[in-house]
UniProtKB/TrEMBL annotation:
A GO term for molecular function: oxidoreductase activity
UniProt keyword Metal-binding, yes or no: yes
Membrane protein topology class: Lipid-anchor
Positions of the Plastocyanin-like domain: 54-161, 346-456
GO CC terms in record: cell outer membrane
InterPro entries: Cu-oxidase-like_N, Cu-oxidase_C, Cu-oxidase_fam, Cu_oxidase_Cu_BS, Cupredoxin
Species this chain originates from: Crenobacter luteus
PANTHER family recorded: MULTI-COPPER OXIDASE (PTHR11709), MULTICOPPER OXIDASE LPR1 (PTHR11709:SF2)
Gene3D superfamilies: Cupredoxins - blue copper proteins (2.60.40.420)
Main location: membrane
Pfam families per record: Cu-oxidase_2 (PF07731), Cu-oxidase_3 (PF07732)
Name of this protein: Copper oxidase
Localization: Cell outer membrane
Length: 456
């Protein structure tokens, strides 16, 4: 049913240097001296950076000239103020992906910042919100391009009572990069608009196959962001002892022995990994997501190398991490159906049969009310589902044959939804306002696979 056979993957046009030590994410400076307050500035602007191995520079769009954007690190309960300046040739916004910020501070498509303008985003982080979030543009019609040109950064909320606070904390932000023969970032092709754009390279903190040094016996906490537009990353650390400890919205209740983590676009995870005496690698295993025009990833990609160092002793992992109360029975149930309609170029990617309209509320909800949504992917491609403004709990997943209860509780804001699958999830919106929900393949979101709930 997919028509012509997908094209073969082509070789990258430009070589990148590889194998340097893992770059740290540059932190955003806090200009406030007041406890509990973070004040920073982000400027989105074109910048020239050296990416190609042959010394040619590349124009990217970046926050504060940095690729990826600066790391924002704050604590639960902090008030965050970000002075934002748009020096791009297009309107933009900053969306605080996964964070429970007021709707008018969340960089919604209806609140654009025009070229040359500035605005201040301001919000206070609630208690128990520690986790690995991110920020990226969300303007109507320009989101995919602004992200693939480089606009995305990590946002970490820490807890002062973190049961894993003694571990080395290593953020790994995974992004995609494609360069043409001029070492420039090319626009999307028709295949990208269909399948979602993938690059020639998956970068880790902006670097190709960097080296993370991990002492034999040392436990580290890896926070991993899938900040690619469209890739599903089946991550593994072959030969290492790996425990999943967190999801999008922070720690899970107890460590789980998970050797493989499937991260769909927009999703995050936390993993505790123990170093060993031999070298190793963080890899992405082959994954087919039903692409129609471009080639599937049938090879294992090495994302980063792990280099050993002299043995150290590490304390054992705590047995319990956090309590996550189950959400009670819902007041409202809704169904969300994701579909593809290749016959209509104006409505190829739909949600409940329609494309996004920022003037229309698809649903009306209530502050504090438990909602249960069954999200069904009736399409031929995977479509990762994302909700703004809150975190949800997945209750069960349907794999096309039957429902299976989710084996553990976690707070998430993106859930992987393979073709023909469904999920059942529950959430509460604590704040009023318009909240988007959409496919996080940014090319699909931009073509209208998005809706909004007006929470009152
Ligand atoms: Cu990460 Cu609506 O976005
Ligand atoms: Cu999609």
């Amino acid at each position: 049913h997919h028509g012509a056979a997908p094209a073969a993957r082509s070789a990258p046009a430009v070589a990148l240097p590889e194998g340097a030590p893992l770059p740290a994410l540059a932190p955003l400076a806090n200009r406030s001296r007041q406890a509990g307050r973070f004040v920073g500035e982000l400027v989105a602007a074109p910048a020239r950076v050296g990416l190609a191995a042959d010394g040619r520079s590349t124009e990217v769009w970046a926050y504060n000239g940095s690729l990826p954007g600066p790391l924002i690190e704050v604590y639960e309960g902090d008030t965050v103020e970000i002075d934002f300046v748009n020096r791009l040739p297009q309107p933009t916004t900053i969306h605080w992906h996964g964070l429970p910020v007021p709707a008018e501070q969340d960089g919604n498509p209806m609140d654009p910042v025009a070229p040359g303008e500035r605005r201040r985003y301001r919000f206070t982080l609630p208690a128990d919100s520690a986790g690995s979030y991110w920020y990226h543009p969300h303007p109507h019609g320009h989101t995919a391009e602004q992200v693939f040109r480089g606009l995305a950064g990590a946002f970490v909320v820490k807890s002062r009572r973190d049961p894993l606070g003694q571990l080395r904390d290593v953020p790994l932000l995974l992004s995609d990069l494609r360069l043409d023969e001029h070492a420039a970032i090319p626009p999307n092709t028709p295949a990208d608009w269909m399948d979602g754009r993938e690059g020639d390279y998956v970068l880790v903190n902006g670097a190709l196959r960097p080296v993370l040094t991990l002492a034999d016996g040392e436990r580290v906490r890896l926070r991993v962001w899938n900040a690619t537009s469209a890739r599903v990353l089946r991550l593994a650390l072959p030969g290492y002892e790996t425990w999943r400890v967190g999801s999008d919205g922070g720690l899970i209740e107890a460590p789980r022995r998970e050797a493989e983590i499937v991260l769909s676009p927009g999703e995050r995870a936390e993993w505790v990994v123990t170093g060993r005496a031999q070298p190793g690698a963080l890899v992405a295993l082959p994954y087919r997501r039903g692409k129609m025009m471009s080639a599937e990833v049938d090879e294992t990609l090495t994302l980063a190398s792990l280099a050993p160092a002299a043995r150290v002793a590490s304390a054992p992992l705590p047995r319990r991490l956090r309590r996550i109360a189950p959400l009670p029975a819902p007041a409202v149930r809704r169904q969300i159906v994701l579909e593809e309609n290749m016959a209509d170029p104006k409505a190829m990617f739909t949600l409940n049969g329609r494309v996004y309209d920022m003037a229309r509320a698809d649903f009306v909800g209530r502050v504090g009310q438990v909602e249960e949504w069954e999200v069904v992917n009736r399409a031929d491609m995977d479509h990762p589902f994302h909700l703004h403004g809150t975190q949800f709990q997945v209750l069960a997943r349907h794999d096309g044959r039957g429902w299976r209860d989710e084996p553990y509780r976690a707070w998430r804001d993106v859930v992987s939804l393979p073709a023909g699958h469904a999920v059942r999830l529950r959430f509460v919106q604590a704040l009023p306002g318009m909240r988007m929900f959409h496919c996080h393949i940014l090319e699909h979101e931009e073509q209208g696979m998005m809706g909004q709930i007006d929470v009152r």
